[in-house]
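re: that complex we talked abt at group meeting.

here r the seqs, copy pasted straight from the sheet so there may be weird spacing, ignore it
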Amino acid sequence: DTEVTQTPKHLVMGMTNKKSLKCEQHMGHRAMYWYKQKAKKPPELMFVYSYEKLSINESVPSRFSPECPNSSLLNLHLHALQPEDSALYLCASSQHGTPGPLHFGNGTRLTVT
Amino acid sequence: AQSVTQPDIHITVSEGASLELRCNYSYGATPYLFWYVQSPGQGLQLLLKYFSGDTLVQGIKGFEAEFKRSQSSFNLRKPSVHWSDAAEYFCAVGSQPRGEYGNKLVFGAGTILRVKS
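got the structure back, here u go
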């Protein structure tokens, strides 16, 4: 069982659609992350939130818009995506002020058609 | 900037045999090192971590890893592999950038472990 819950598990969307990925954790962690993982590749960091504030943006295109409404929730809003954005999107959390570890959810498998 | 090298893309071992997965890192300061395992279509599960202290670290599922600063290595080992260990294994190094919170984790390319009966 994972303590980081991601919904939906699978998502298929067209290039003109708007959709959102959701992530929730109840471990009291104050740092939350979005990673993108392409097939047969390692996860790549997209965003880091610390105390609900965006602290790291790894030069991610603006068609990906993160949001952290409270300390337990993390969203990733998607708009005008491209087929090459198809990937597994992983959410993670960690305690603040420490060098890890990260606790990962099971991810959302996104397909852009 | 930190980086991680996992030189073996695939490794095949027989069930019951011992296992060693290699990991080399590059980082200017004291590294924070991790091993994660990922089954197909799943998230990443933490196997073990090294922050400081004893260089031999015990993890879950019978795995251990040894930190060798002189070799910049953090190899993962298991004395006897089970068929359920077949998965992809990622080594990662973490840092906490100055003035920022959160752990900027950088992953190696991964090693796919196959177990033959």
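couple things i noticed - Chain B touches chain A at residues 32, 34, 36, 41-46, 49, 51, 90, 94-97, 100-110 (CB under 8 Å). Chain B is about 0% helix and 50% strand.
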